[in-house]
Amino acid sequence: MPNAHSDPHQTRDTLFFRLKADAPGRELAWREFYEQYAPIISGFCRKMGVRPHDTNDLVQDVIMGFFAVSPEFVYDPAAGRFRGYLKTCTWRIFQRRLGKQLRIGGRSLESVDQNEIQVESTWNDVWESEKLQRALARVRDRYLARPDKAKTYRAFEMYVLLERDAETVAKDLDMSLDSVHQAKSRVSKALRIEMDALTETVD
């Protein structure tokens, strides 16, 4: 699992290396790749108005397309972020499969450039949302695994995620008001660290 002390690109580059045809544990690496990037592609499909029954096919086409080129693929951070490469792969398949069916702003998909603001912002919004959910899950699991920290996460969850007022949270969890505010600060800081780590290992 990536952590806040990972070397930049280490986990990502290791994963790409393990996808090579002769690499040990390739099947497990592909499962990791799918779990990491398929939700982003799927979320992008939904945001772009793709019908549910077409989404799975599009996700599979993108993943299999990358599978086909993976033996020769070499990630070069200097050439751009992986999120941009994957967006290009996804958009090409979108246009090939749905170019004449799907419309954006009254135009057919085949006439829309992938770098247009609507496409770019939608892709980045989905990417960041998925990254946030992964970071939140890691922080939650880490806090809830320790009885001495579980209440801290619960306070954060109720106060920040569920948007309950601090006084109610303090009363429900038998905490001081100051402790609720400290919980927000501590978990928020842990979440920012996880987001930074994922930026280095996923983007």
Q: Structural class given helices, strands, pairing?
A: mainly alpha
Residue share in helices?
Answer: over 70%
The mean pLDDT is 85
The stretches of 5 or more residues where confidence is low (pLDDT under 50) are: 1-10
Number of domains: 1
- Cα-atom Rg, whole angstroms? 20 Å
Gap between N and C termini, in Å? 15 Å
N-to-C SSE series? HHHHEEHHHH
**How many DSSP E strands?**
2
Strand order of the largest sheet: 1-2
The count of helical stretches stands at 8
Query: For the report, how would you describe the main beta sheet?
Result: 2 strands, antiparallel
**Envelope shape:** globular
Strand percentage lies at: under 5%
Assembly of the depicted chains: single chain
Description:
- The chain has 203 residues and is mainly α.
- The chain has helices spanning 10-18, 26-47, 52-69, 82-98, 117-144, 147-161, 166-173, 177-202, and strands at residues 103-104, 107-108.
- The chain has one domain (10-202).
- Helix content is 70%, strand content 2%.
- It has a two-stranded antiparallel ribbon.
- A hairpin with a 2-residue loop joins strand 1 (103-104) and strand 2.
- The radius of gyration is 20 Å and the shape is globular.
- The two termini are 15 Å apart.
